[in-house]
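subagent[fold] <- orchestrator: predict structure for attached chain, return tokens only, no commentary.
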Amino acid sequence: MRRTVTSFTIALAATTAAGCGAGGTAGPPGVEASRSPTTARPNPPAPTTARPNPPAPTPTSTSSVPAADSPPAPGTGELPAASDGDDLRSCADGRCEVLVSAQDEIDFSRPVGVEVMRVESIEDGRVTVVGTGPGIMLTLGGQAPGKTSIMNSVAVTVVAVDGDMAVLRLGPR
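subagent[fold] -> orchestrator:
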């Protein structure tokens, strides 16, 4: 057995030193095989040219007032104004943007696949809504702000959530 290991070691050393026809390199990239099979040295790093960092931009304003178009940050106690306020009847046609709280119900006057959509809960920055109709019950659970889900033929988007209030946008699928 010892003779086999020695023969294998010699064959391996010869192959490594010869580089297996790969131009004198063997082993992992960036490591050059030396003449001795027991030592290897890393290739020297390629020279680099130092470039100075550009100067930091100078702030032009110190105002912390958000832009009028941007929604407030989550948890600030503010929600963006819903275009239809808290008038849930504006959603009867399946198109609206309203301020809702848990247990609010929206009755649809036109067929959207469900007759009533109820805000089941608003917890931990997420909204759960349940749509019901004859022989159907659909749940959109734990919807985060920015998330749009489809409930049959109506798209339900959670615009923003703060505490126990949320702004929902409904529209066609």
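orchestrator: received. Logging for downstream: The CA atoms of residues 53 and 59 lie 18 Å apart. The chain is about 10% helix and 35% strand.
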